[in-house]
Amino acid sequence: MDRNSITITMNLLSWIGLIAMGFMIYYLLFDTASRYGEQGERIGFESMKKSRYLLLLISLASVFLFYPLSIFYCLGQIQTILSCLTAAALIAWSKDRKILAGFLVGLCCSIKPQYAVVLLWAAFRKEWRFSVALVVTAGILQAVSVLAYGFHNVIGYIDVLRFISRRGESFFPNQSVNGVMNRLLFNGNNLEWVEDSFPAYNPAVYYTTVASSAVILGVALFWRVRHRPQLLDLALIFLSVTIASPVAWEHHYGILLPIFAVLIPAAIARRPFGKWTEAYLMTAYFLVSQKLETFTDQFANTHLNFLQSYLFFGAIMVLVLLYRLLSVDARLAKASV
After folding, report:
1. pTM attached to this predicted model
2. If we measure between CA atoms, which residue out of 314, 309, 319 comes closest to residue 288?
3. What are phi and psi of 72, to 5 degrees?
């Protein structure tokens, strides 16, 4: 298959993936709302049941209005498919199809090795069906890769990851701690993509990146480790893996849309921030779903260039909300015993 045919095939798969994502968003919204039955009036669950078709249209529209997903038109990235796989994994987990969920995450892991952290997360919680399915899927695909391209490519990829992790990327679409630090220290070009250039190695950037990644992943791995993981727990580890990456491009945050589909009904039902819950939700959603670079890039060469990391800060808000929601759920569950 020539390069042009591959491009056409991948673009077609991405379009199919976006449409499928719309249906999955609809399912996750409806399914999560139904799980909070006692707060049905607050969520508007009865109205949702009466307006299923309107909710489906909104779900489909949201996919094309969510910038980290819709940016695929320009980039043609496989991340669109990976985002769909994570959404499908959330649905499989919600239906207690742990083997299927593990298989789907294993597919992700074969493309993005950092998803191996999800395996540790599951193993620590003794989710063996999920863990075995993930290992078998990723292992088979890795073996096929080695047979097709040779083991030297695996070693070469590890070297590339090591190189990137030491330098990161200053270009503003890198929405991570590494990106924030590189831009704050004016280490590299933050407005233009330079294909064959990386920021110079900076110890402050490197060690801040390592420390923040260790904290984000460490807390996610060991928090509530003795509890049976819920759907929100899986969403939390997915988001933590993305945020903790040294280079987290804008399109990597496409996973936030299915996370919001789970989060919104739960947050409205539990109100973890009281009367400020809805405002918090809307602010976080606005920051992660919109393209604001026309405004924020004006500060690229000033000490206010941290404003270019608006998507990263929105993702942190979502992560905080997930932790808060799970804490509220745990407290309510304990009170009901």
Report:
1. 0.92
2. 314
3. -60, -25
